[in-house]
Amino acid sequence: MANGASAMVFDQRVFLSLNPFNVYVAQPEVKPGCVLRRSNWNVLERKGVVDKKSEDVCKSHMNTFAFVGNLDQSPEVSCVYHSEEAENQFMRDPSRAVLGDGVVQTMREKIDAQTTKGDRFR
Fold first, then answer.
1. 27 pLDDT exceeds 60?
2. Hey, which of 25, 47, 50, 72 has its CA 20 to 30 A from 103?
3. What gap in Å lies between CA 31 and CA 67, rounded to an integer?
4. How far apart, in Å, are the Cα atoms of 118 and each of 8, 81, 96, 110, 122?
């Protein structure tokens, strides 16, 4: 997209009951979307889908806007935060990527530690 980066958007609901404590997860709905470059926020202004106050709030938290749908037909616009927490772990070293609960990674680290100890005593 000319105004930002194409994205896959996952809309998902999580239901939490407290008594008894249970977590229920609904099937996610996947939609095409776009994460706007900050320099292109004026597109949202021109289309009348965000106002100056929304921009100021989003900007003050170091965020940007993303949307789902057609900008000409009432899109779903959100202020989103960019997280680099798991920045391409899989691309750097697929064998080290922590997926799920991290159990596999922990097992690999233990095996590596045992292998290293064994090499020292040869």
1. yes
2. 25
3. 10
4. 46, 45, 21, 12, 7
Distances (CA, A) of 85 to 23, 43, 69, 82, 98: 24, 29, 27, 9, 12
Strand order in the sheet with 29-36: 4-11, 29-36, 64-68, 76-80
The domain ranges of the chain are 1-82, 85-122
pLDDT single digits (tens) 81-106 = 887 766 666 566 666 655 555 556 66
Question: pLDDT tens for residues 1-15?
Answer: 577 899 999 999 999
For tokens 């900050």, what's the residue? 38
Q: Which candidate, 15, 6, 10, 74, places its Cα nearest to that of 35?
A: 6
How many whole angstroms separate alpha carbon 91 and alpha carbon 62? Answer: 26
In this structure, the chain runs to a length of: 122
Q: Of all residues in the chain, what percent are helix, strand and coil, respectively (each to 5)?
A: 35, 30, 35
